[in-house]
Amino acid sequence: MAQPVVAYGSDVRPVRFGAPVALPSWTGNIGLGQVEITDAEPQAAHAVASALGANGVIAKQVAAPSGVASTVILTEGLAAAAPADAHWSALAQARHAGTPGSRIIFLQPSHAVSGLPGLSRTLQKEWPETSVATWTLSATDAQARAAHILSALAASLGDALITLDGQAHLTQVGPSLTPPAAARAPAAPGLWLVTGGARGVTATCAVELARRTGGTFLLAGRSALSPWPQGIPPTTELKTLRAALAQQAVASGQKVKPADIDRAARAALAGQEIQATLTALASAGGTAHYVQLDLSDTAALAPAIAAIQARHGAITGLVHGAGVLADRLAMEKTEAEVRKVFGPKVDGLLALLGTLDTGHLTHVGLFSSASALFGNTGQADYAMANECLNQLARQLAANLPATQVKSFNWGPWDGGMVDAGLAAHFAQQGIALIGQADGARIFADQLLDSPHDVVEILVGDEWSGG
Question: Pfam families in the record, alphabetically (predicted)?
Fold first, then answer.
Protein backbone atom coordinates (compact mmCIF):
# COMPACT_ATOMS: atom_id res chain seq x y z
CA MET A 1 0.00 0.00 0.00
CA ALA A 2 1.37 3.43 -1.01
CA GLN A 3 2.49 5.63 1.85
CA PRO A 4 0.76 9.06 2.13
CA VAL A 5 2.83 11.99 0.90
CA VAL A 6 4.05 14.10 3.80
CA ALA A 7 3.29 17.81 3.41
CA TYR A 8 6.06 20.38 3.26
CA GLY A 9 6.91 22.25 6.43
CA SER A 10 7.10 25.54 4.49
CA ASP A 11 4.67 26.98 1.97
CA VAL A 12 5.68 26.46 -1.67
CA ARG A 13 3.92 28.55 -4.32
CA PRO A 14 4.46 29.26 -8.02
CA VAL A 15 5.11 32.84 -9.14
CA ARG A 16 3.80 33.87 -12.56
CA PHE A 17 2.62 36.85 -14.53
CA GLY A 18 -1.16 37.05 -14.29
CA ALA A 19 -3.83 37.41 -16.94
CA PRO A 20 -3.63 40.49 -19.19
CA VAL A 21 -5.11 43.73 -17.91
CA ALA A 22 -6.20 46.26 -20.52
CA LEU A 23 -4.69 49.71 -19.96
CA PRO A 24 -6.78 52.85 -20.47
CA SER A 25 -6.19 55.29 -23.27
CA TRP A 26 -4.56 58.60 -22.48
CA THR A 27 -7.24 61.16 -21.63
CA GLY A 28 -5.16 64.19 -20.85
CA ASN A 29 -2.86 65.45 -18.10
CA ILE A 30 -3.69 63.29 -15.11
CA GLY A 31 -1.85 65.25 -12.47
CA LEU A 32 1.67 64.23 -13.41
CA GLY A 33 3.04 67.62 -12.38
CA GLN A 34 6.55 68.45 -13.53
CA VAL A 35 7.93 65.49 -15.49
CA GLU A 36 11.60 64.60 -15.98
CA ILE A 37 12.97 61.73 -18.08
CA THR A 38 16.58 60.67 -17.82
CA ASP A 39 18.36 60.36 -21.14
CA ALA A 40 20.41 57.22 -20.41
CA GLU A 41 18.53 55.70 -23.37
CA PRO A 42 18.08 58.80 -25.58
CA GLN A 43 15.66 57.33 -28.12
CA ALA A 44 13.25 56.14 -25.47
CA ALA A 45 13.54 59.39 -23.52
CA HIS A 46 12.88 61.50 -26.62
CA ALA A 47 9.94 59.35 -27.72
CA VAL A 48 8.26 59.55 -24.31
CA ALA A 49 8.91 63.30 -23.98
CA SER A 50 7.50 63.90 -27.48
CA ALA A 51 4.42 61.76 -26.81
CA LEU A 52 3.73 63.60 -23.56
CA GLY A 53 4.32 66.95 -25.26
CA ALA A 54 1.85 66.07 -28.00
CA ASN A 55 -0.70 65.53 -25.24
CA GLY A 56 -0.08 68.79 -23.46
CA VAL A 57 2.42 67.64 -20.84
CA ILE A 58 5.81 69.33 -20.70
CA ALA A 59 8.50 66.73 -20.01
CA LYS A 60 12.19 67.56 -19.75
CA GLN A 61 14.99 65.22 -20.76
CA VAL A 62 17.68 65.43 -18.10
CA ALA A 63 21.05 63.87 -17.36
CA ALA A 64 20.00 63.52 -13.72
CA PRO A 65 16.81 64.29 -11.81
CA SER A 66 16.63 67.74 -10.28
CA GLY A 67 14.91 66.61 -7.12
CA VAL A 68 11.91 68.88 -7.66
CA ALA A 69 9.95 67.00 -10.34
CA SER A 70 6.70 65.28 -9.39
CA THR A 71 7.14 62.43 -11.88
CA VAL A 72 10.53 60.99 -12.83
CA ILE A 73 10.94 58.32 -15.52
CA LEU A 74 14.33 56.59 -15.38
CA THR A 75 15.61 54.98 -18.61
CA GLU A 76 18.84 53.58 -17.13
CA GLY A 77 17.44 50.05 -17.30
CA LEU A 78 16.92 50.37 -21.08
CA ALA A 79 20.50 51.43 -21.79
CA ALA A 80 22.98 48.96 -23.26
CA ALA A 81 25.12 48.40 -20.18
CA ALA A 82 26.43 45.56 -18.05
CA PRO A 83 23.96 44.53 -15.30
CA ALA A 84 25.92 46.01 -12.40
CA ASP A 85 26.43 49.27 -14.31
CA ALA A 86 22.75 49.62 -15.24
CA HIS A 87 21.44 48.78 -11.78
CA TRP A 88 23.86 51.04 -9.95
CA SER A 89 22.99 53.90 -12.33
CA ALA A 90 19.27 53.36 -11.75
CA LEU A 91 19.73 53.37 -7.98
CA ALA A 92 21.98 56.43 -8.05
CA GLN A 93 19.50 58.37 -10.19
CA ALA A 94 16.58 57.37 -7.99
CA ARG A 95 18.34 58.89 -5.00
CA HIS A 96 18.15 62.28 -6.73
CA ALA A 97 14.44 61.84 -7.38
CA GLY A 98 13.15 60.18 -4.21
CA THR A 99 11.41 63.06 -2.48
CA PRO A 100 8.17 62.72 -0.49
CA GLY A 101 5.14 62.80 -2.76
CA SER A 102 7.09 62.17 -5.96
CA ARG A 103 6.62 59.30 -8.37
CA ILE A 104 9.55 57.29 -9.76
CA ILE A 105 9.20 54.89 -12.67
CA PHE A 106 12.00 52.54 -13.70
CA LEU A 107 11.95 51.14 -17.24
CA GLN A 108 13.57 47.87 -18.28
CA PRO A 109 13.30 45.57 -21.33
CA SER A 110 11.82 42.09 -21.05
CA HIS A 111 14.54 40.56 -23.23
CA ALA A 112 17.51 41.60 -21.06
CA VAL A 113 18.68 40.35 -17.68
CA SER A 114 17.38 43.08 -15.42
CA GLY A 115 16.10 43.12 -11.86
CA LEU A 116 14.76 46.61 -11.28
CA PRO A 117 11.49 45.34 -9.77
CA GLY A 118 13.61 44.22 -6.82
CA LEU A 119 14.75 47.84 -6.47
CA SER A 120 11.29 49.36 -6.75
CA ARG A 121 9.87 46.89 -4.21
CA THR A 122 12.68 47.70 -1.77
CA LEU A 123 12.32 51.46 -2.22
CA GLN A 124 8.59 51.16 -1.57
CA LYS A 125 9.59 50.00 1.92
CA GLU A 126 12.47 52.38 2.51
CA TRP A 127 10.70 55.43 1.02
CA PRO A 128 7.02 54.93 1.94
CA GLU A 129 6.12 58.50 0.98
CA THR A 130 7.39 58.03 -2.59
CA SER A 131 5.54 56.05 -5.26
CA VAL A 132 7.94 53.67 -7.02
CA ALA A 133 7.30 51.16 -9.82
CA THR A 134 9.12 49.24 -12.54
CA TRP A 135 7.61 48.70 -15.97
CA THR A 136 9.09 45.85 -17.98
CA LEU A 137 8.58 46.56 -21.67
CA SER A 138 8.31 43.86 -24.33
CA ALA A 139 8.24 46.41 -27.15
CA THR A 140 11.62 47.38 -28.59
CA ASP A 141 10.43 50.19 -30.89
CA ALA A 142 10.73 53.59 -29.20
CA GLN A 143 7.33 54.81 -30.42
CA ALA A 144 5.53 51.67 -29.23
CA ARG A 145 7.27 51.94 -25.88
CA ALA A 146 6.16 55.56 -25.55
CA ALA A 147 2.54 54.67 -26.31
CA HIS A 148 2.60 51.90 -23.69
CA ILE A 149 4.18 54.21 -21.12
CA LEU A 150 1.46 56.84 -21.62
CA SER A 151 -1.22 54.19 -21.08
CA ALA A 152 0.59 52.96 -17.96
CA LEU A 153 0.78 56.54 -16.66
CA ALA A 154 -2.95 56.92 -17.22
CA ALA A 155 -3.54 53.75 -15.21
CA SER A 156 -1.15 54.74 -12.37
CA LEU A 157 0.30 51.27 -12.90
CA GLY A 158 2.51 49.58 -10.33
CA ASP A 159 5.18 46.97 -11.09
CA ALA A 160 4.12 45.20 -14.29
CA LEU A 161 5.14 43.54 -17.53
CA ILE A 162 3.69 45.37 -20.55
CA THR A 163 3.49 43.06 -23.54
CA LEU A 164 3.60 43.89 -27.24
CA ASP A 165 -0.18 44.28 -27.36
CA GLY A 166 -0.01 47.04 -24.75
CA GLN A 167 -1.60 45.00 -21.98
CA ALA A 168 -0.24 44.77 -18.46
CA HIS A 169 0.56 41.58 -16.56
CA LEU A 170 1.07 41.73 -12.80
CA THR A 171 3.24 39.31 -10.85
CA GLN A 172 1.05 36.89 -8.92
CA VAL A 173 1.76 34.22 -6.33
CA GLY A 174 -0.32 31.12 -7.06
CA PRO A 175 -1.87 28.52 -4.77
CA SER A 176 0.34 26.23 -2.72
CA LEU A 177 2.11 23.36 -4.43
CA THR A 178 1.99 19.91 -2.91
CA PRO A 179 4.86 17.42 -2.97
CA PRO A 180 4.84 15.21 -6.08
CA ALA A 181 2.99 11.95 -5.53
CA ALA A 182 5.70 10.02 -7.34
CA ALA A 183 9.15 10.86 -8.61
CA ARG A 184 9.96 10.67 -12.28
CA ALA A 185 12.02 7.77 -13.51
CA PRO A 186 15.64 8.65 -12.70
CA ALA A 187 17.75 9.79 -15.61
CA ALA A 188 21.28 8.66 -16.21
CA PRO A 189 23.61 10.08 -13.54
CA GLY A 190 24.81 13.48 -14.67
CA LEU A 191 27.60 15.92 -14.01
CA TRP A 192 26.44 18.68 -11.69
CA LEU A 193 28.24 21.99 -11.22
CA VAL A 194 27.18 23.58 -7.93
CA THR A 195 28.33 27.15 -7.26
CA GLY A 196 28.48 28.14 -3.62
CA GLY A 197 27.64 24.52 -2.95
CA ALA A 198 30.48 23.44 -0.72
CA ARG A 199 29.04 25.09 2.37
CA GLY A 200 25.73 26.20 3.84
CA VAL A 201 22.22 25.63 2.53
CA THR A 202 23.32 25.05 -1.06
CA ALA A 203 25.45 22.16 0.16
CA THR A 204 22.45 20.71 1.98
CA CYS A 205 20.45 20.81 -1.26
CA ALA A 206 23.31 19.26 -3.24
CA VAL A 207 23.46 16.32 -0.84
CA GLU A 208 19.74 15.69 -1.32
CA LEU A 209 20.22 15.78 -5.11
CA ALA A 210 23.03 13.24 -4.80
CA ARG A 211 20.79 10.97 -2.74
CA ARG A 212 18.18 11.01 -5.49
CA THR A 213 20.23 11.11 -8.67
CA GLY A 214 23.73 9.86 -7.98
CA GLY A 215 26.19 11.27 -10.49
CA THR A 216 29.19 13.50 -10.08
CA PHE A 217 29.11 16.80 -8.21
CA LEU A 218 31.65 19.54 -8.79
CA LEU A 219 31.43 21.94 -5.87
CA ALA A 220 32.72 25.39 -6.84
CA GLY A 221 33.58 27.90 -4.14
CA ARG A 222 35.90 30.81 -3.42
CA SER A 223 37.48 29.24 -0.34
CA ALA A 224 40.62 27.15 -0.55
CA LEU A 225 40.37 23.59 0.74
CA SER A 226 42.61 24.32 3.71
CA PRO A 227 43.76 21.40 5.90
CA TRP A 228 42.98 21.33 9.59
CA PRO A 229 45.93 22.67 11.62
CA GLN A 230 48.01 19.93 13.19
CA GLY A 231 47.79 19.50 16.93
CA ILE A 232 44.48 21.37 17.24
CA PRO A 233 41.37 19.43 18.39
CA PRO A 234 38.45 19.63 15.93
CA THR A 235 35.88 22.36 16.63
CA THR A 236 33.24 24.31 14.79
CA GLU A 237 33.60 27.44 16.94
CA LEU A 238 35.66 30.30 15.50
CA LYS A 239 36.42 31.76 18.94
CA THR A 240 37.65 28.41 20.24
CA LEU A 241 39.87 27.81 17.23
CA ARG A 242 41.40 31.28 17.36
CA ALA A 243 42.29 30.76 21.02
CA ALA A 244 43.85 27.37 20.27
CA LEU A 245 45.91 28.78 17.39
CA ALA A 246 47.08 31.68 19.54
CA GLN A 247 48.13 29.33 22.34
CA GLN A 248 49.95 27.13 19.84
CA ALA A 249 51.82 30.13 18.44
CA VAL A 250 52.87 31.29 21.92
CA ALA A 251 54.03 27.77 22.86
CA SER A 252 56.20 27.57 19.75
CA GLY A 253 57.65 31.05 20.23
CA GLN A 254 56.01 32.53 17.14
CA LYS A 255 54.83 36.14 16.99
CA VAL A 256 51.61 36.07 14.98
CA LYS A 257 49.28 39.00 14.44
CA PRO A 258 45.66 38.57 15.59
CA ALA A 259 44.47 39.28 12.03
CA ASP A 260 46.61 36.40 10.74
CA ILE A 261 45.25 34.06 13.41
CA ASP A 262 41.69 35.03 12.51
CA ARG A 263 42.37 34.45 8.82
CA ALA A 264 43.91 31.04 9.47
CA ALA A 265 41.04 30.03 11.75
CA ARG A 266 38.39 31.02 9.20
CA ALA A 267 40.23 29.18 6.42
CA ALA A 268 40.51 26.03 8.54
CA LEU A 269 36.81 26.09 9.43
CA ALA A 270 35.89 26.62 5.79
CA GLY A 271 38.08 23.72 4.74
CA GLN A 272 36.56 21.52 7.42
CA GLU A 273 33.02 22.37 6.23
CA ILE A 274 33.94 21.73 2.59
CA GLN A 275 35.42 18.37 3.48
CA ALA A 276 32.28 17.47 5.44
CA THR A 277 30.15 18.26 2.39
CA LEU A 278 32.33 16.10 0.14
CA THR A 279 31.97 13.24 2.62
CA ALA A 280 28.19 13.72 2.83
CA LEU A 281 27.87 13.68 -0.96
CA ALA A 282 29.81 10.44 -1.18
CA SER A 283 27.67 8.89 1.56
CA ALA A 284 24.54 9.97 -0.34
CA GLY A 285 25.66 8.12 -3.47
CA GLY A 286 27.44 10.81 -5.45
CA THR A 287 31.02 11.32 -6.54
CA ALA A 288 32.27 14.68 -5.30
CA HIS A 289 35.12 17.00 -6.21
CA TYR A 290 35.93 20.49 -4.97
CA VAL A 291 36.91 23.23 -7.41
CA GLN A 292 38.19 26.58 -6.16
CA LEU A 293 36.45 29.05 -8.43
CA ASP A 294 35.68 32.73 -7.87
CA LEU A 295 32.64 33.61 -9.97
CA SER A 296 33.33 37.32 -9.59
CA ASP A 297 36.56 36.78 -11.58
CA THR A 298 34.72 36.42 -14.88
CA ALA A 299 37.89 36.48 -16.98
CA ALA A 300 39.12 33.27 -15.33
CA LEU A 301 35.88 31.33 -15.76
CA ALA A 302 36.22 30.24 -19.39
CA PRO A 303 39.60 28.51 -19.03
CA ALA A 304 38.57 27.02 -15.67
CA ILE A 305 35.35 25.53 -17.06
CA ALA A 306 37.17 24.29 -20.17
CA ALA A 307 39.65 22.45 -17.94
CA ILE A 308 36.83 21.00 -15.81
CA GLN A 309 34.94 19.67 -18.83
CA ALA A 310 38.09 18.32 -20.44
CA ARG A 311 38.56 16.19 -17.33
CA HIS A 312 34.98 15.28 -16.40
CA GLY A 313 32.91 15.71 -19.57
CA ALA A 314 29.97 17.98 -20.38
CA ILE A 315 28.18 19.61 -17.47
CA THR A 316 24.52 18.53 -17.49
CA GLY A 317 23.20 20.09 -14.28
CA LEU A 318 23.79 23.57 -12.89
CA VAL A 319 22.90 24.73 -9.39
CA HIS A 320 23.76 28.38 -8.75
CA GLY A 321 23.86 29.20 -5.06
CA ALA A 322 26.79 31.63 -4.93
CA GLY A 323 26.08 34.98 -3.37
CA VAL A 324 27.18 37.60 -0.86
CA LEU A 325 25.44 40.31 1.16
CA ALA A 326 26.33 43.99 1.53
CA ASP A 327 23.29 45.31 3.39
CA ARG A 328 22.82 49.06 3.70
CA LEU A 329 19.96 51.48 3.09
CA ALA A 330 19.59 52.62 -0.52
CA MET A 331 20.51 56.23 0.28
CA GLU A 332 23.80 55.01 1.79
CA LYS A 333 24.68 52.17 -0.55
CA THR A 334 27.91 52.45 -2.54
CA GLU A 335 28.73 51.42 -6.07
CA ALA A 336 31.37 49.01 -4.73
CA GLU A 337 28.71 47.24 -2.65
CA VAL A 338 26.40 46.84 -5.64
CA ARG A 339 29.25 45.39 -7.69
CA LYS A 340 30.21 43.08 -4.84
CA VAL A 341 26.69 41.62 -4.75
CA PHE A 342 26.25 41.42 -8.53
CA GLY A 343 29.70 39.87 -9.07
CA PRO A 344 29.06 36.23 -8.11
CA LYS A 345 25.26 36.18 -8.37
CA VAL A 346 24.67 37.83 -11.76
CA ASP A 347 27.92 38.57 -13.61
CA GLY A 348 29.42 35.22 -12.66
CA LEU A 349 26.32 33.29 -13.68
CA LEU A 350 26.12 35.04 -17.05
CA ALA A 351 29.81 34.37 -17.69
CA LEU A 352 29.35 30.76 -16.61
CA LEU A 353 26.40 30.23 -18.95
CA GLY A 354 28.46 31.79 -21.72
CA THR A 355 31.11 29.09 -21.30
CA LEU A 356 28.69 26.13 -21.18
CA ASP A 357 26.92 24.36 -24.00
CA THR A 358 23.42 24.92 -22.64
CA GLY A 359 22.11 22.24 -24.99
CA HIS A 360 23.68 19.67 -22.63
CA LEU A 361 21.89 21.04 -19.57
CA THR A 362 19.03 18.95 -18.25
CA HIS A 363 18.52 20.90 -15.02
CA VAL A 364 19.18 24.48 -13.90
CA GLY A 365 18.37 25.49 -10.32
CA LEU A 366 18.93 29.11 -9.28
CA PHE A 367 18.98 30.30 -5.67
CA SER A 368 17.02 33.54 -5.72
CA SER A 369 15.45 35.24 -2.72
CA ALA A 370 12.03 36.39 -1.54
CA SER A 371 13.65 39.84 -1.28
CA ALA A 372 13.38 39.99 -5.09
CA LEU A 373 9.64 39.39 -4.94
CA PHE A 374 8.76 41.57 -1.94
CA GLY A 375 11.72 43.91 -1.48
CA ASN A 376 13.60 44.14 1.80
CA THR A 377 14.87 47.12 3.73
CA GLY A 378 18.63 47.47 3.32
CA GLN A 379 18.86 44.93 0.50
CA ALA A 380 18.29 46.94 -2.68
CA ASP A 381 21.28 45.38 -4.43
CA TYR A 382 20.50 41.86 -3.24
CA ALA A 383 16.85 42.19 -4.31
CA MET A 384 17.89 43.46 -7.75
CA ALA A 385 20.45 40.71 -8.27
CA ASN A 386 18.00 37.99 -7.30
CA GLU A 387 15.27 39.42 -9.50
CA CYS A 388 17.82 39.20 -12.34
CA LEU A 389 17.95 35.45 -11.65
CA ASN A 390 14.15 35.21 -11.86
CA GLN A 391 14.08 36.98 -15.21
CA LEU A 392 16.98 34.91 -16.52
CA ALA A 393 15.22 31.71 -15.44
CA ARG A 394 12.12 32.65 -17.43
CA GLN A 395 14.28 33.32 -20.48
CA LEU A 396 16.19 30.04 -20.12
CA ALA A 397 12.98 28.04 -19.70
CA ALA A 398 11.58 29.58 -22.88
CA ASN A 399 14.76 28.92 -24.84
CA LEU A 400 15.45 25.43 -23.44
CA PRO A 401 12.14 23.53 -23.57
CA ALA A 402 13.81 20.21 -22.70
CA THR A 403 15.53 21.61 -19.59
CA GLN A 404 14.09 21.84 -16.09
CA VAL A 405 14.72 25.47 -15.08
CA LYS A 406 13.70 26.70 -11.63
CA SER A 407 14.39 29.89 -9.72
CA PHE A 408 13.72 29.55 -6.00
CA ASN A 409 12.67 32.72 -4.18
CA TRP A 410 13.80 31.45 -0.80
CA GLY A 411 12.56 32.92 2.40
CA PRO A 412 15.04 32.89 5.30
CA TRP A 413 16.61 29.52 6.12
CA ASP A 414 17.44 28.30 9.57
CA GLY A 415 21.16 28.71 8.93
CA GLY A 416 23.13 29.94 5.92
CA MET A 417 23.21 33.73 5.61
CA VAL A 418 20.63 34.18 8.38
CA ASP A 419 22.46 35.08 11.59
CA ALA A 420 20.83 35.80 14.94
CA GLY A 421 20.18 39.44 14.04
CA LEU A 422 18.44 38.60 10.76
CA ALA A 423 16.49 35.80 12.41
CA ALA A 424 15.15 38.28 14.98
CA HIS A 425 14.26 40.72 12.17
CA PHE A 426 12.21 38.06 10.38
CA ALA A 427 10.61 36.88 13.61
CA GLN A 428 9.32 40.41 14.25
CA GLN A 429 7.59 40.23 10.85
CA GLY A 430 6.05 36.84 11.59
CA ILE A 431 8.19 35.09 8.97
CA ALA A 432 9.15 31.53 9.87
CA LEU A 433 12.56 30.10 9.01
CA ILE A 434 12.85 27.25 6.51
CA GLY A 435 14.23 24.06 8.04
CA GLN A 436 17.34 22.59 6.42
CA ALA A 437 15.85 19.16 5.65
CA ASP A 438 12.55 20.64 4.49
CA GLY A 439 14.25 23.15 2.20
CA ALA A 440 16.46 20.49 0.64
CA ARG A 441 13.44 18.27 0.02
CA ILE A 442 11.53 21.15 -1.59
CA PHE A 443 14.50 22.01 -3.79
CA ALA A 444 14.99 18.45 -5.07
CA ASP A 445 11.26 17.83 -5.53
CA GLN A 446 10.67 20.96 -7.55
CA LEU A 447 13.87 20.87 -9.58
CA LEU A 448 13.52 17.22 -10.53
CA ASP A 449 9.77 16.61 -10.64
CA SER A 450 7.65 19.77 -10.96
CA PRO A 451 6.07 20.74 -14.31
CA HIS A 452 8.28 22.54 -16.82
CA ASP A 453 6.08 25.65 -16.77
CA VAL A 454 6.57 26.15 -13.03
CA VAL A 455 9.72 28.25 -13.31
CA GLU A 456 9.70 30.77 -10.47
CA ILE A 457 8.85 29.47 -7.00
CA LEU A 458 8.32 31.20 -3.67
CA VAL A 459 9.38 29.10 -0.68
CA GLY A 460 8.26 30.29 2.74
CA ASP A 461 5.93 32.99 4.02
CA GLU A 462 4.93 36.12 2.12
CA TRP A 463 6.67 39.27 3.33
CA SER A 464 4.75 42.37 4.21
CA GLY A 465 6.85 44.33 6.69
CA GLY A 466 9.96 46.37 6.03
Answer: KR
